[in-house]
Amino acid sequence: MGLLNRLDNPYNISPGIVLGTMEDLLNWGRARSDWYLQFGLACCAIEFMALNASHYDLMRFGCIPRTSPRQADFIIISGTVTLKMAERIKRLYEQMAEPKYVLAMGSCSICGGPYWKEGYHVLKGVDRIIPVDVYVPGCPPRPEAFFDGMIKLQEKINKQKIFEKRARVAQEDAKNGNIGNIHLPHGWEEVK
Amino acid sequence: MNPKDIFELLKKEIGDQALELVEKEYHDPFIVVRANSIVETCLVLRDDPNTLFDYLVNLSGVDDKDKFVVVYHLYSLKHRHRIVLKVYLDRENPHIPTVERVWRSANWHEREAYDMFGIVFDGHSDLRRILCPYDWEGHPLRKDYKTPDYYKGIKVPL
To answer: Which of the residues B151, B152, B155 would you substitute to probe the A interface, choosing the one with the greatest number of A C-beta atoms within 10 Å?
Structure first.
């Protein structure tokens, strides 16, 4: 799975040599040092604080809280997103540097939660304003559930493309038939 | 003091501006007061040595379909008694004098009642919305409030 797991390959015993691409190395670094924006919204933030404390110890994932969006790699939407807050969240997300990820925590940020029908001021899902990478359901989710989401995010970062990203993603989509009428850049059709 | 004595005191001080005392076993006893005498009533209740209501527990608005109601929950830290005041307001043009000069904590409560119901507190020093964004349209806790479809380009209903 990860880069270092290849050292444990029983079929290829090597004296500590790992062969991989530059992308593997960069993704390995990115996935294991995700800094998050220190930003709580509602009662999920209480669970999120418990997550940061010594009992659950989020820092073992390499997560360090940053108080500035410009230093953060991902943002955790921890709670109910009101329409008043939605503008601020969008602005915070836009201020973050690429690559950036969004982790929606709890049913409120996924679909509006208990306010899905009568909440006149609640955004029914944060994916209406910013793209979400990982959804962690629960009301609020247990820290274990959040860890599962964190591992999912790391898997996603491990698989991401860095060099010639747009062209390769487009090529892959065209191959899988996801999107039609993709115009690949010159010379990319031959690359396998 | 029990609610009857408080009502008698109010009758003596402000006359027929105190309309009625309602006592049932299933709710807190409350006194209905006219809107334009609310400041006078509150000053009497706060400063009379037998009542000394020095603490405004809560000030809230109610939409009662045909009228608006402003509810004042008062408590005395010295005598440890409590009373509820109610003011009935016209639904079309809800205006009431502020009690911000009587209890400073009324400031935010009145802003909330204004935000949620559109009740205008005359003489308030800073009558802005407190919960909703400043550019919000309508007053959300009114019974006839319609949730808008879009807020600044964001779809609101599910």
So the answer is: B151
